[in-house]
Specification:
Blueprint (H helix, E strand, L loop, with lengths): L7 H10 L7 E2 L1 H8 L3 H14 L2 E3 L5 E3 L5
Helix pairs in contact: 2-3
Length: 70
């Protein structure tokens, strides 16, 4: 585990960095797999980011970068 991921801010950055041109929309499981975070941790971080508007959930259940970051 990197030192960055051991902090709350590091985990947030890990989740946000999972999104790129090749992966603009992902399921929670895909985010967890790409970040290496536990699914429960990913769920908690994604929920907080969604509450703030940084991530949005599509009707198919996938997540993408929210308007607040744009």
């Amino acid at each position: 585990m990197s030192t960055t991921r051991s902090t709350a801010a590091g985990k947030v950055l890990e989740v946000l960095s999972a999104f790129d041109r090749e992966h603009p929309s992902q399921t929670l499981s895909e985010i967890a797999q790409r970040t290496g975070l536990a699914l429960s941790t990913t769920h908690r971080v994604v929920a907080e980011l969604a509450d703030w508007g940084a991530l949005e959930r599509a009707e198919d259940g996938s997540w993408h970068v929210g308007l607040r970051l744009w």
